[in-house]
Amino acid sequence: MVSSKMFGLSCFSSESSRDLSARPHYPSMPKYPKGASIPGDLEGSVVNKALFAVTGMTCSACAGSVEKAIKRLPGINNAAVDVLNNRALVLFYPGFVNEDTIRETIEDVGFEAYLINEEVKEGPILKCRIRIRGMTCTSCSATVESALQGLPGVQQALVALATEEAEIRYDPKIINPNQLVEAVDDSGFEGILISTGEDRSKILLKLDGVRTDRSMRMIESSLQALPGIEDIIIDPLLQKVSLSYKPDQTGPRNFIEVIQSTGSGRFNATIFPEGGGREPFRQEEIKQYYQSFLWSLVFTIPVFLTSMVFMYIPGIKHGLDTKVVKMLTVGELLRWILSTPVQFIIGRRFYTGAYKALRHGSANMDVLIALGTNAAYFYSVYSVLRAATSEVFKGTDFFETSSMLISFILLGKYLEVLAKGKTSEAMAKLMDLAPETATLLTFDSEGNVINEEEIDSRLIQRNDVIKVTPGGKVASDGFVIWGQSHVNESMITGEARPVAKRKGDSVIGGTLNENGVLHIQATRVGSESALSQIVRLVESAQMAKAPVQKFADRISKFFVPLVIVLSFSTWLAWFLAGKLNAYPKSWIPSSVDSFQLALQFGISVMVIACPCALGLATPTAVMVGTGVGASQGVLIKGGQALESAHKVDCIVFDKTGTLTMGKPVVVSTRLLKNYVLRDFYELVAAAEVNSEHPLAKAIVEYAKKFGNENEAHVWAEARDFVSITGHGVRAEVQNKQIIVGNKSLILDSGVPVPVEAEEILVETEEMAQTGILVAIDSEVVGVIAISDPLKPGAQDVISILKSMKVKSIMVTGDNWGTANAIAKEVGIETVVAEAKPEDKAEKVKELQMSGLTVAMVGDGINDSPALVAADVGMAIGAGTDIAIEAADIVLMKSNLEDVITAIDLSRKTFDRIRLNYVWALGYNCLGIPIAAGVLFPSTGFRLPPWVAGAAMAASSVSVVCCSLLLKYYKRPKRLDALQIRGIVVE
């Protein structure tokens, strides 16, 4: 048992931690045990408490999915998941559920969990990324994953076949990144460290002029003395220094200056040349496969010609049939010599891959290729050697089978790698958005520019002032301190319309300045920038496995062994049938005997089966889908979100800031007493200026119009100010008691509400406006009507969702009158108003209990519980950081239309995944029987092994190309006709 302080670290609010009632809080209740048929029967039952360590969570979305899964179990009183400390605290009724069931449920979500009896102080858990070369199918990725997962100190290892990368969460006190790379190498693949993954700024510098160890130590001690330095790693061999630092205290230019001053000008430092990106390795892999394929052609074409073409040309045929030793012919000897380099030198990669896989108790595509080609090659060697030692044996070789097989498979791998490289084009484009250089401005004490210097954009430090000229890219996140212009942010947000920027406005690194000169003060640099965070988000999304991929993973475990058994069975069946004369001798082609015919069928079965296509079916589509989504301004956090979104049949919308603009404005004022409007607003604004509520801010902004625009308004002092959450404010202004709020606040304060004011309130609510009553000295003197205008296109979006058979519901904390008026205007039939944050989450769970797959669209902190509870949480990009963190999908443009884009893209992606499985399984389901000779008795058609190899290669290429077609995704045409982003399409 643990102390209740765990709740302080958890996701519980103070209110919910006080009220852990027996009322069910979970989306679905399978059934209660006997004797507890209704929730009320649980009152007074003993509640047990269990604390689990959960590894693998990276953000609130992960914590949300774990919490959702736990709460769906019967008998869960409450659950809180703390993503920062990797803990899950569960209160449950032991008669319903036990700790093992809860642990298994957490693991089913995709995270490791174990029960702990006391809180253990753990060190920081770091995340490391490793590029892995040599993986060919899902059994390869599974081998690496299990090898990494078995290491001490590794909390979670995730290996993605499509990206050829591993993401590992590890304890740096137990294991280091180099040991992780060694583990990858030991498992039979090549591991290359991309990043150690600390969530802090990091830079690599190349040192010049350093000759001795003493020089290195001098530089290290000089850098260590700088404030904000967290870690220094020096590689003397490469003369490279890696620095981790706090960007608010220091930066890369300081490091270079310190290094240069340390050696009195003898030492110099520059940014280390980038080579850690995915693209250089991809290009190298493409080049390797291309060269291997060309070399294989050099040997394979003569083999093919001598065995299948020249035998029909009389003169050449006679020369090839010339005996060398006994029955060994020139043609057989040539084919043996030419095919050997293909088999053992060019095809060496398949031997090494097969050996490493078998050594670790798994079987992959390399095993099938090695077995198939070896069977053909070594039978041919046996045939040739027997002919060389016999006077009567006339051998038939299959050297062309082994060499052509390898050539076609290399061609297939070359095309596959080429196509896979294009799946990450969206990522490459994102990474290339940041400009290479920036213009740094230096100012004198009076604020005048005294120097302009062009620097590498990676040397920008926080609070630097950067000049951006027309047509140039913004080099860093920051805000405008001088100038005005329009900035095209479509490359980051997907927003097509240029956004006006002037002093005080924020800008995003990587966006394009269109017409004016801007001076920008950098606020977030390096890994903190919005662009870096988007890239990391998309990378993580592409690493995450969609639940549908479990299907392929399950099949791949016994796919290769099953194929080997089928292949052997095929050979044995045909061989025995030949020996027992079960088929006519006329079926056997003239050039082979029954054993050779059976061998060809067996080899064809072995090489046509391709586990690669099955393994690539889901991840390639998810990669392209998430990349396309990012380019459209829809950030999808991984395969889980993508899969859930395509099932959505009900969407819960928040009102303020989601269906409406989120910026309330005063539309009318009705005075019930003789007051000068200016004096009336002086009193009201003086009270409301102390409140943070959006309606209060709208009143204050409106009141400013009565003053001088050029001067900052100073409001009268408000004494005894009290803010009543959700109701209004009270204060004493100029010796008058002011109450500004809703009807309930006025009545609770003992102030009668006149009939005239009641009528005005009813009118405002019918017009989808919020009526605010103002009482001065215990008398209602006016009603202020505030409206939050609908977002352009909101009605059309709801209409399109209806046509997509998606039900729309509105849940808001606003009053029933306003809520019903807004719902009627947009076309939503089901409304829940005056809802607290927990009520929103309860409504979501209630809908889930009715069998619906629910998406929640919101933008505020109060929407976070519902975003986590929903099957898919969609956060408006302009909303709060907490809402964005809690959501599964972020709509960067803050447009409602992107809800449709997200659902439609998800549906298209999963259509593509299904089609990929049809391709992958179709090749095998149709190809294996044909290769086994099912058609041979009736049609005489058989599949030569080299044709089977070409078909196997084609299956992988077709799956990747099928996924690539998603790159041409266009959002539904109906969206183009909407009034969006304030633009009327005429």
Could you characterize the architecture of this molecule?
This protein is elongated. It has 986 residues and is of the alpha+beta class. The chain contains 34 helices and 36 strands. Helix 3 crosses helix 4, helix 9 packs antiparallel against helix 11 and helix 26 packs parallel to helix 28. A seven-stranded mixed beta sheet has the order 24-36-35-34-25-32-33, with helices on both faces. Strands 16-15-17-23-18-21 form a six-stranded antiparallel beta sheet, with no helix packed on it. A six-stranded antiparallel beta sheet has the order 26-31-30-29-28-27.
List the helices and strands and how they pair.
Elements lengths: L5 H4 L4 H5 L29 E8 L4 H12 L4 E7 L4 E6 L6 H11 L2 E5 L9 E8 L4 H12 L4 E7 L4 E6 L6 H10 L3 E6 L5 E8 L4 H12 L4 E7 L4 E6 L6 H11 L5 E4 L6 H31 L5 H7 L2 E3 L2 E2 H17 L1 H12 L5 H24 L10 H25 L1 H7 L5 E7 L5 E8 L8 E4 L8 E6 L2 E4 L1 H4 L5 E3 L4 E2 L4 E2 L4 E7 L5 H14 L5 H31 L14 H15 L2 H21 L2 E3 L2 H7 L4 E4 L1 H5 L5 E7 L5 H12 L5 H10 L14 E7 L3 E6 L2 E6 L1 H6 L6 H12 L3 E7 L3 E8 L6 H10 L3 E5 L4 H11 L3 E3 L4 H13 L4 E5 L5 H6 L2 E5 L4 H6 L2 E3 L5 H35 L4 H4 L5 H20 L22
Parallel strand pairs: 25-32, 25-34, 32-33, 34-35, 35-36
Antiparallel strand pairs: 1-3, 1-4, 2-3, 5-7, 5-8, 6-7, 9-11, 9-12, 10-11, 13-14, 15-16, 15-17, 17-23, 18-21, 18-23, 19-20, 19-22, 24-36, 26-31, 27-28, 28-29, 29-30, 30-31
Helix pairs in contact: 3-4, 7-8, 9-11, 9-14, 11-13, 11-14, 12-13, 13-14, 13-19, 14-34, 15-20, 17-20, 18-19, 18-20, 19-32, 19-34, 20-32, 20-34, 21-32, 23-24, 26-28, 32-34
